[in-house]
Amino acid sequence: MEPLAILPEILNEMEELTVPHILGLDDLEDARRLYDIFIPSEQAVKEEFWTEFSPKEELAGKKASLAIFVASGTRRIVPREFQLRATMALCSGKDALIDVGTGYGKTFCMILPALLSPRKITLVVSPLKKLQEMQVLEFRAYGISALAINEDTPNDPKLWEDIASGRFSVLIVQAEQLFVDKGHFPRVARLLSNRKFIKKIIFLMVDEAHCIYTMGTSLYGLPAFRPAWNYLAELRTKLGSKVAVAALSGTLPKHIKNIVKQRLQLDNDNLCNIKLSCNRPNISYAIHEIVGELSDYRNLDFLLPNNFDSAMDVQTKKKGIVFHDSVEGAIAAKYYHERCLPAEQRGKGIIRHYCSIMSEEYLQTVYDDFRNPDGVCQILHATEAASTV
Question: What is the pTM of this model?
């Protein structure tokens, strides 16, 4: 991409500004002028925010703001301060520890650096297939070529040739694919033995980083559930100090945070430490007292409206998930609620269950319908398999 040599005075229409133009910016004054032209003043971060950063960091921050503003189309997204802090730190070679609650926008701390580095590879470690699928869609929504890699990834020579060549700028990988696992040498682990491939990697993003402790550590006398998460220290060493590392989680109490920092070799002297409160003013917490046994599903009657005069009563009911400790409990509660519906509304998918014993096709169908605001499913009885819905 050729640098934007001249910034025309008339460059003030959105269709004239593209992500490649933005990535070609190497002059801070040009970036500032574009930022002032295109970013709405009511959405822009305060001017004093930029004063604590170096010109190189500010340039990265302004470019990130412009790039996501353009790449997000009609949504016109403008990054928040913590997202910019993380992005500027990573793009300047620092590591980042991002302790931010669910729903606050941690994913943009991965999207923005990747958006600024389309010719390099961002390696994302992610714990669940369903989460990988969601993340691939999020990256692709902003024009970033992303691919999920897990045990289901086909052994297609052309696909792996594309992966090795860097065609995908973001690889979202399960930890087990990075190391020798039960005598198996996964394709990604083999690629990581290739210095040419490693040189393409610019960022290592560890999403749900608390899994290093909760899944990768032997606890309470039991072996680690997924020991590969504990081996990420080896990956950090193999990638070297030129690869910036981000650890992201909304579940980092002090003892877990210390383990994450130790395993990922996060040095306080080279670390951008971000912590936002998990308090959500728009969420209320309530205790619903159970009468009798948990298996008495009349305790869940409050989830249904008092009457069903029409199908619209159900359609306007807000969606909800009920988590159960067992598959049997989820299925039994689903059938109980189904029987509570008027006869004409039963069997239409208003009440569903979501458990790992169901087929992939069923789980995907239910998952997509429940996430769709206009979907039929209103109440989902689930096990922990639905923890990313």
Answer: 0.81
